[in-house]
Amino acid sequence: MDSMQPMEKTLKLIGDNGVTFSNMFTSSPLCCPSRSSIFTGKYVHNHKSVNNSISGNCSSKYWQDGPEKKTFATYLKSQGYVTFMAGKYLNQYGTPDAGGVEHIPPGWDWWIGLVKNSVYYNYTLSVNGTAESHHDDYQKDYLTDVIKNRSLEFLENVDSSKPFFLMASTPACHSPFDSAPQYEEEFKDKNAPRGPSFNKHGSDKHWLIRRAKTPMSNVSLQYVDSTFKKRWRTLLSVDDMVESIVNSLTEKKLLDNTFIIYTSDNGFHLGQFSLPNDKRQLYEFDVRIPLLIRGPGVPKKKVIADPVINIDIMPTIVNLAGLTPPSDVDGASLLPLLVNFWELY
Questions:
Q1: Is 341 a residue whose pLDDT tops 80?
Q2: Beta bridge mates, 134
Q3: pLDDT value of position 340
Q4: Cβ(20)–Cβ(291) under 8 Å?
Q5: pTM for the whole thing?
Q6: Greater confidence, 160 or 57?
Q7: Structural contact between residues 258 and 204, judged by C-beta atoms closer than 8 angstroms
Q8: Which of 50, 66, 253, 340 is deepest in the core (most CB within 10 A)?
Q9: How far apart are alpha carbons 66 and 212 in whole angstroms?
Q10: Which residue, 197, 111, 99, is CA-closest to 150?
């Protein structure tokens, strides 16, 4: 909900230096189905990760034997890219039923995958197939910063003569909304937006929306506003991460030859149609997500209003690597909207 407002550094470093897609949507506003679509370029009914459980094919054997073998990572690897991923992958990743931490998805040279779902402290990472435990020390364990620091280590050591791909996948601004200590007092004067649908009964919506209690209680309203503040606070660390990565690319003289994509897997509602908080509803507040892209040949400060969707990310990445997107994906490359393709190659 208004998640780009606190991202001042990101808006400046990517948005002002690239393209903002003002009508970007997710095909399914739930973690694992949406992430599976981002990786494969396919709708849920084609990659079949329908929810966040193993039985719903979230990092299941079916996923690993099929869709996982044809993600943007495998195509990049075939083009000689050095690939790095740090952070959240899929909600069931690393569990015993998903092959444990030893399972490294194909296509990745450097793998630092979060076991299970979003957290900020007290978690396990699969570091190239070996379990690494983290606890509750901010300096050592705050996951957004761990992702940032491992990403910077990769950039520091990567052979810049070879193409590379880095994916930094943070837990923010997912629950449990643990912000960094230095940001715990931010946004005290901010409350959740009171738009036209806020605390209104969705009398003409589907049955699940109509079940919401209207008006919300004072306790619910306080919870909504508190959650809004906490989500924004977690994003300040993401903003710091973006700045650090851009600075690293600048120092290595790689920024002008690097595409940077910033996006998310789902939206969120806080009080719309009197629904206190969640996602999973096929209304704009849950399906609208950010998409900012900068890179060589991409115009600066441009807003593109064409409707685009999360399944377009995979073919776009593959296209940027010089490949024709696979014919069996559902999405389409955004490269024609970004730049003149033939000026790049």
A1: no
A2: 123
A3: 58
A4: yes
A5: 0.96
A6: 57
A7: no
A8: 50
A9: 39
A10: 111
CA pair distance 99, 304, nearest whole angstrom:
41
The token duo for 105 is: 């998805």
What is the arithmetic mean of pLDDT over 126-136? 98
Q: What angle do CA 339, 257, 77 make, to 5 degrees?
A: 95
Return the CA Rg of the chain: 20
Query: Which two three-digit tokens encode residue 301?
Result: 């400060």
Average pLDDT, the chain: 96
Q: Which residue has the tokens 């970007």?
A: 24
Q: For residue 223, what are the CA distances in angstroms to 102, 217, 230, 291?
A: 39, 10, 10, 28
Q: How far is CA 228 from CA 2, 115, 180, 240, in A?
A: 9, 26, 16, 19
Please list, in sequence order, all residues whose beta carbon lies within 8 angstroms of the beta carbon of residue 219, skipping any fewer than 6 positions away: none
Torsion angle (degrees, nearest 10) of CA 40, 44, 49, 53: 140
Sign of the C-alpha dihedral, residues 129, 131, 135, 138?
A: negative
Residue 69: which residues within 8 A CB-CB, separation 6 or more?
A: 106
If DSSP codes are grouped into helix, strand and coil, which group holds residue 256?
Answer: helix
Whether 115 contacts 93, CB under 8 Å: yes
Please state, in angstroms and rounded to a whole number, the distance separating the CA atoms of residues 58 and 48: 9
Provide the token pair at 75: 């195509």
Active site residues: 31
β-strands 19-21, 302-304: how paired? parallel
Q: Are 311 and 43 in contact (CB under 8 A)?
A: yes
How many residues can be counted in the chain?
Answer: 345
